[in-house]
Design brief:
The chain is mainly alpha-helical. The chain has 2 domains: 7-65, no CATH class; 67-102. The protein is 60% helix and 4% strand. Strand 1 and strand 2 (94-95) form a beta hairpin. The N and C termini lie far apart (40 Å).
Length: 102
């Protein structure tokens, strides 16, 4: 099976974030997540263009202020998603992570 190739250019919100901030491609997923969670506490589809651009710049400022935190968070998300122990157990209809915690 051929390998899936990623687009060289960011698409969707990440492209808009890049235009507003000039951030490199590797930061765009983190900036989008920061915008959703820490800046707007919501989805990104209800802002005007000016609000979106301001939010993108605020997200970049937050990232620059605490890059170590956001980088650690990103690496933890990747580790958690790649660890099959935390994937839903479809056979039994349970979430194995929740079963381990409770």
């Amino acid at each position: 099976m051929p390998a899936v190739r990623r687009s060289a250019k960011p698409t969707g919100y990440q492209a808009m974030i890049q235009v507003a901030t000039g951030a490199p491609d590797k930061l765009l997923p983190a900036l989008e997540r920061i915008m959703r969670r820490d800046v707007f506490h919501s989805t990104l589809d209800w802002q005007s263009a000016a609000e979106f651009n301001l939010g993108a710049r605020q997200a970049l400022a937050l990232y620059r202020r605490d890059a170590a935190f956001y980088d650690a968070e990103t690496s933890q998300l990747v580790l958690t998603c790649n660890d099959k122990r935390y994937m839903p157990n479809r056979m039994h209809g349970t979430n194995s992570f929740a079963d381990k915690v409770w």
